[in-house]
Amino acid sequence: MPRRHDIDALRVFAFALLIAYHLGMVYVAEWGYHAKSTYQAEWLQWPMIALNRWRMPLLFMISGIALGLAMAARPGWRLALSRSWRLLLPLLFGMLAIVPVQAYCEALGNGAIEPDFGAFMARYLQLRPWAGGGWSGAEYGITWNHLWYLAYVWTYSMLLLALTPVLESAAGTRLRNWLFDRPRIFWVLVPSAWLFAGLWWLMPRWPETHALVGDWYAHAKYLFFFAAGWLVAGEARFWTGLVAMRRTTLALALLAISLELSLRAAGRYLPPGDIPAWALRVDWAMIERMARATYAWTALLAIFGWSRTLLDRPFQWLPSAREAVFPWYVLHQSLIVPLAFSLSPLALGPWLEPLLVGTGTIAGCAILHMRVIARIRWLRPFFGLPPRPSRQASRYSTTSWMASPPR
């Protein structure tokens, strides 16, 4: 099948944004994270809110597209085995060998343990609850932190593969044809309504936890995006429609996020005495959720539509960047957290410190990937790479690179 260079490029760009977002988490005021700097800025909340609404949905939808394309090329059982190997091995390895440094820095910063990483690891690897551990996941004795995405993508992949006979039946085909024959406004309104229902009804009852079990709002959201990616993967009518409506979806997305941020700013900064009586009778929370849901979906439609137009070409940098994504994803937060934790006490200033943390993270990922991981055959699968590097990275099959997760 023809290579989708636009999806390749989106995967790389989405990961780059993930590094920037997790770096921002160190410095954004009022938001919790595994390590926080003394230099925190409230203004960072606004661009991070705008990014947060679609950054993870984009990754889940890309992985759903991966599954949809892969299901057309491989038997289901082989695909299940391949996905399990490519997702679960890096997840388990990461939880045991990569993520613990984040928990150590978090516990040390909270004053829950004494400085001794060796002693911490000896206790961590016992894999039993750690009362008063002072780090995210201590109640379980182990954590996956930023690697939670791998567990969710694997679960959703196995679910859709198990439902393959139903999804690919004659009734399933008729349903798909019916969906894609609807007016394009249907593609905007119905998914937005689903996301709004999740925000309005599920989120207050089951806030997002990334614990997999009982995370009902997150599943209603992320499984939707994953299944949507699977559904549209090879559907030419959808991609043609996205390109045609890319300006409209971009305008809708900008309007929706402007409304959401304006309402948030009004609630945060507007003195209660300055609010007119008529405004107090309006359900602004519902309007804010409607704007948030509309923005999340239309932003994705605009991103995919514009990337199909601008990025579907074989950029020279793309093959090497494509292979780097998975190792960098596994490594990056376990560099950000200890770097921020170590540099924060030095009072380097609000510009130099984040510059050093960001530069150190990128340099660390590049060195570890190119000088260590990529060169050691037995180590490569632990970071989502095949044991043997391809002689021509640009010839990686769509299913082989997309079967692994992007973040």
UniProtKB/TrEMBL annotation:
One of its GO terms (molecular function) is acyltransferase activity. The chain crosses the membrane at residues 12-34, 54-73, 85-104, 146-164, 185-202, 222-239, 290-307, 354-374. Pfam families: Acyl_transf_3 (PF01757). Keywords: Acyltransferase, Membrane, Transferase, Transmembrane, Transmembrane helix. Signal peptide: none annotated. It comes from the Bacteria. Residues 5-369 form the Acyltransferase domain. This is Acyltransferase family protein. It comes from Luteimonas padinae.
